Amino acid sequence: MKTRFLLALCLGAVCFAGAPAREPQSDPRLRNAFRRDPQNDWVFVHLEGKPGDIGYQHGYLLAPEIADAFRVVQAGLVHDSKKDWPFFRNAARDVLWPHIEAEYRDELRGIVEGLHARSVNLDLWDVVAYNAWLELSPYYTNWYDRQHHLSSALIPVAEHCSAFVATGSYTRDHRVVIAHNNWTEYKEGSHWNMMFDIVPAAGHRILMDGMPGLIHSGDDFGINDAGIMITETTIGSFAAFDPNGIAEFVRARKAMQYSSTIDDFTRIMEDGDNGGYANTWLIADRKNNEIASLELGLKHVTLKRTKDGVFVGSNFPQDPALIHDEAPDFPVHDMSISANARHKRWDDLMAENKGRIDVKMAEKFLADHYDTFAGKRAPSERTLCGHVDLSPRGSKPWQAPYGMAGTVQNKAADAAMAEKMELVAAMGHACGLNFKAADHLKKHPEFAWQKDILRDLDSYPWTKFQIAR
């Protein structure tokens, strides 16, 4: 496919168009690929072709960013799990790789080739483990520890993200609106600043956010040219894993690439489910303005769908059977915890704004600082714009080692935008507060081990991205 490369970038009501930054055409695999210099901290990357070509383009164009992000993820996995890096490489080779299909094996190998062409010496098992970091710890590590009677080392599954999807009488134009903020540890989150435009040889074109070097979004916000719009939030305290299943990062990418309907998405995500990075997925089909919530446990899966309603996500499990069997430690009735406080805030906002929800309102929701438990505005882990680092309570047991965490970026889109394959995104906190690494390390010397990998996370304005035309 030949593409005339042009990226339109819109800041507020003003749009800018410019030629992409081209790489030397020494390798024919780079002919249809490019990256742009950061715009409001986002790096736009266009990848196109067969799986191996897309992988090579990815590894080559983003080699410095991949090397940097890998170093951070590796350090975090080793520190938090108390396991060495060979443990994760072995899991990538022996547990994950046997269940990865040929298309994504080729893409992962391509990333390694592209990295080597830029003198970044990561090998295949490094790249596979890096792609799976969200499911290797704590989902796989907890399973491994239970199998080896190391239960004292179990790490709680942390909470990630706030999201909603709405349609029908809830939205201003009665069509789909979807939005999500990604909150994780700042050390990784400051690297979650890629905007990928992927044109695969098979399947649908994708526009998604992500981290450099990952073949999936990771926080899973994306749209495809079949009209499917996707996001998710993790299921708090989830405690199941199947080493014979297909890696979540593979299923998530495949579902984004090959889904034409909500049923397609559900089938792909369920097929080979390994329980890794277990999520409640929020899905929309802009073609018929239908939305769905897929609570994807390992034993228990619940799909709800409607053409007039809203679904929200903030890490709370819903199905009683799933809670009993797969999230038994989740404090269902404790309204002081993050997931439950944010759930109530979502419900309140959806009811108060029924009939008026649009992308601009979604941007305001993601910046919200109202604490429903305290009954006041105070940024913390209980607010939709997450600020665990500002909470007077500090990290709680079910939030894992989350001393420096919060919202790291935000995305939103509506049906009209999805028709044009565009979305809006904002790096940092949507509320505008900045995170300064040095200041926080000074206040919290217990995180001194992050000194060489933690960096500032400033907040930037909402920016519109669209696929290359």
Question: Can you walk me through this structure?
Answer:
The chain is α+β, with helices and mostly antiparallel strands and 469 residues long. The chain has one domain: Penicillin V Acylase, Chain A (4-Layer Sandwich). 31% of the residues lie in helices and 22% in strands. It is built from 14 helices and 19 strands. The chain has helices spanning 51-61, 63-81, 85-96, 102-117, 124-131, 133-147, 186-189, 248-258, 262-270, 320-326, 338-352, 359-366, 415-419, 437-443; strands at residues 7-11, 14-18, 34-35, 43-49, 162-167, 177-185, 194-200, 206-210, 222-224, 228-234, 279-285, 290-296, 301-306, 309-313, 370-371, 376-377, 405-414, 422-427, 463-466. The strands form 3 sheets. It has a 9-stranded mixed β-sheet, with helices on one face. The longest helix is centred in the first third of the chain and has 19 residues, at 63-81. The model is unreliable at 1-23 and 396-401 (pLDDT under 50).
